[in-house]
Design goal:
single chain; alpha/beta; Rossmann fold; UDP-N-acetylmuramoyl-L-alanine:D-glutamate ligase; Protein-Tyrosine Phosphatase, Chain A; nine-stranded mixed beta sheet; six-stranded mixed beta sheet; globular
Length: 459
């Protein structure tokens, strides 16, 4: 990042990422300005002001953009924002958090990306390494900005990072020693030109790797949208498909993971037993475990630590979490399922008939990708949020679709529609922002509504 110290760096967006970035750059001696259109960030701005950082809150000033040495764009901000387009036309470079982190970081890194499962795998890798006695910092898209590691006095051996496509879009120098690509499925197509554009962003996590680096890739990723690039790094693959050929990596066989490893790992056991993992249901989670195990092995963990971490893993909130059983009907919170692939994988986990709560804010979502799974598993759809009319149109004639105005009505209607032993599943395939601040708030509301229903029937 070639930036002079004669002008200033503009930090755009004062969420947690932007706040940490502004503090970090100021601590490194750069002159920093920060701006956010949201007046709710005023208190945070005052904290920055005390550090000598100028802020503009509640408005944007094009001249502030145009005069910057560079603009650090927080990951959630669209790169086609008019203020950014005008600034770049004046020659102002856009910089992402990954390149700034790369410039100053000296700690080995495991970086995980993919459409689904990133947070689960990131947390698993952290747990596996810690179980092996390897200290870690866990951050990135999972919630804690990576620059907080650079500001910490605590020394760790490995940084474990969840990386989003939005972060990768501005990464030109980012070079993780171990990089993982979990899967690719349609998502965020409201931001990307098409699926190929989205896939290109994900694959770019490997773009700066050399033969001394490691790439861990799901062998089931097809070249349908974007041809796999030729990678310079050492490649390990994992997969669960019966026809999947793994030359080096991990193969999933029923409820076990077989490791196929090069000579440097020959003293390790070749199988990880994954039976009775109630907190990691489904084949997709076996793939997540396989990816995490490979990454952890390459980062120095031993197989015993990996196995113990898997068995102890509590699962993560809002990811196929069992809520309760009311009169034989089991309720599951899968609010984190914000795309169709995640919903399909959730439905695969159930043998029972499912009443599916679907909907929210679309991301150019193609609900027809769910038709096969819905025909096979779903008895009725309860449609919520902005996407409800489109859901009703797509699934007309496939199953009964009932539109309701909110979560309380969705839970009550789903309960009435379910029969004994059926499952009620919140797995929305959409973002939450039409009704909630985030997917966690949506999942919490679902759980609260289910609890209220349970009290009504058992209170």
């Amino acid at each position: 990042m070639q930036i002079s110290r004669t002008s200033y760096i503009l930090v755009l967006g004062l969420g947690r990422s932007g706040l940490s970035m502004a503090r970090f750059l100021a601590a490194k001696g750069y002159k920093v300005k920060a701006t956010d259109i949201d007046e709710g960030t005023m208190n945070d701005a005052k904290e920055l002001n005390r550090l000598g950082i100028d802020t503009q809150i509640g408005f944007h000033d094009q001249s502030t953009f145009n005069r910057a040495d560079a603009i650090v764009v927080s990951p959630g901000i669209p790169l086609d924002m008019p203020y950014l387009l005008t600034a770049t036309s004046h020659g102002v470079p856009l910089v992402g958090d990954l390149d700034i982190f790369t410039r100053f970081n000296q700690t080995p890194m495991v970086a995980i990306t993919g459409t689904n499962g990133k947070t689960t795998v990131t947390t698993l890798v952290r747990d596996m390494l810690e179980a092996a006695g390897i200290s870690t910092f866990m951050g990135g898209n999972i919630g804690t900005p990576l620059v907080e590691h650079l500001m910490s006095c605590e020394k760790v051996q490995v940084v474990v990072a969840e990386i989003s496509s939005f972060q990768l879009d501005l990464a030109t120098h980012f070079t993780p020693g171990i990089a993982v690509l979990l899967n690719l499925a349609p998502d965020h197509l409201d931001r990307y030109e098409d699926m190929a554009d989205y896939a290109r962003s994900k694959w770019s996590i490997f773009q700066n790797q050399t033969k001394k680096h490691t790439a861990i890739i799901n062998a089931g990723i097809l070249d349908t949208f974007f041809s796999r690039p030729n990678l310079a790094s050492v490649v390990y693959e994992f997969g669960s498909a019966p026809d999947c050929t793994i030359i080096q990596g991990a193969r999933i066989e029923k409820q076990a993971i077989d490791l196929i490893l090069p000579e440097k790992f020959t003293d390790l056991p070749i199988r990880i037993d994954c039976r009775d993992l109630k907190n990691l249901p489904g084949t997709h989670n076996l793939e997540n475990i396989a990816a995490a195990a490979l990454a952890s092995l390459c980062a120095g963990a031993d197989p015993n630590a990996i196995s113990s971490a898997v068995k102890a893993f509590p699962g993560l909130p809002h990811r196929l979490r069992f809520v309760t059983n009311i009169n034989g009907i089991r309720f599951y919170n899968d609010s984190k399922a914000t795309n169709t692939d995640a919903v399909s994988r959730a439905l695969e986990c159930f043998e029972q008939r499912v009443v599916l709560i679907l909907g929210g804010r679309e991301k150019d979502t193609d609900f027809t990708l769910l038709l096969a799974a819905v025909k096979k598993k779903v008895g009725q759809i309860i449609a919520i949020g902005e996407a409800a009319p489109n859901i009703a149109r797509v699934f007309l004639g496939v199953c009964k679709v009932t539109r309701v105005p909110g979560m309380k009505e969705a839970v009550e209607t789903a309960f009435d529609a379910a029969g004994p032993t059926d499952v009620v599943l919140l797995s929305p395939a959409c973002a939450s922002f039409d009704m909630y601040d985030n997917y966690a708030a949506r999942g919490d509301d679902f759980t609260a509504c289910v609890t209220e229903l349970e009290l009504k029937h058992h209170g």
